Amino acid sequence: MVGDLVIGEKGAFSDCAQESFTLSQQPRIITDFVPTLQLFLEEEFIGDALFDALANFHEGRARQAFQLMAEIERGVIATMGPAIARHGLKLADPEGLREDGRREAEAMRDMSWSDFLSHVDEDYPAFVDELEQLFRLAPKADKADIQLFLDHEVALIDFAAAEQNGDPKSVDILTAFLQRVT
Fold first, then answer.
1. pTM
2. Which range of residues forms the domain containing residue 166?
């Protein structure tokens, strides 16, 4: 069993299993708002590049969906500008973060579209849990931003479920959320 990954004071990560950090399917325990916000924003840069690169490995509907997902990640980053300034966040180099995303995409290169949708269905609820924790810690001035952050993960999960169920309009879920952040 993997130990809990705790995000606490000064952005320190305490991983009881001493594993390297990757996006995980088990929710991390959130104990401090600002460093967690910074981490989650940095993960959006990783997600942007991940989805952008995955689009290049697929065709048709999957490519379209991955492109929309990348646009959503970029939109979320852009809408969080005021929160970044409000908290004086010094984000890691975006290009280095994007390189991490491209490496992650390369590792997923051979994953089928169906397997990717299952991955979202299985793993992304952990991100929702983490964002709900962050929302509870958020100062009033940040509640709307964190709700948007949370809503974008829900949109990805809802899209994956609709796509797995054969809904021909599943992409509309992504498009509708993208309109909120562009």
1. 0.87
2. 32-181
